Amino acid sequence: MDWQWPFSVQQAREFQTRAASQLQLTPFQHPVRCIAGADIGLPNKGSMVRAAICTFDANCLTPLELSIVTLPNTMPYIPGLLGFREVPALVRAYELLENKPQLVLVDGQGIAHPRRFGNASQLGWQLNIATIGVAKSKLTGEHQPLEAPPGSVQPLIDENHIVGYVLRSKARCKPLYLSPGNRVSTEQSLSFVRQCLDGYRLPKPTRWADAFASNRPSAAKLLKLLSPDKVHQIT
DNA sequence: GCGACAG
DNA sequence: ATCTTGTCGC
Q1: Binding residue numbers of A
Q2: Smallest Cα–Cα separation from A39: which of A129, A128, A122, A119?
Q3: Which residues does UniProt call coiled coil (predicted)?
């Protein structure tokens, strides 16, 4: 698929509805040995799109590989169409990985989207891989008030059905909005993310991806924990 | 018409 | 998201 801005927003929405019907939301059945986190940053005042994907051993959560791809940014931010801005760079970053992860946690929504096709779903659909949406705020849906203790959960309901979960991943922090992207179930989205929590609000894979994509001060420190030959970059 | 609106 | 000063809590 080749969507070059400016394109018809209406046609893009129709594409999302059509592609969403092709998503697989049944439980992922194979062993997950490698989990990745994926995120986008916008360097140079948004003139560039930088994708970062970092892979981890699924059991001990030690970092394995990192890929960073920077491309010119074309699209503006349009709520509901985030995938068209982010996915092309994420695909390039994914292609650089020597060892492909069985599961990718993506910053943003999965099916918790007006047309059930958030950026996490779009990445999973295009690559035909398992993805989970890990969003820091809500796009659509409603839920009961969340209890204060960490670990509290509420189902996220949209149009009368469960599209994901709202999780208090850390005390005194705003919750996470989790939803399946592709090839995982709603229940698995919750359990896989919980498995990747390590005391911070964001699960380790997306936290590292965010650090590299947005070039946080912590990125330099994290980079030292990776073998130089396991770091791939395209600029 | 008005409010909501991932990143 | 990005930019950026100041503040609060552990």
Answers
A1: 39, 107
A2: A119
A3: none
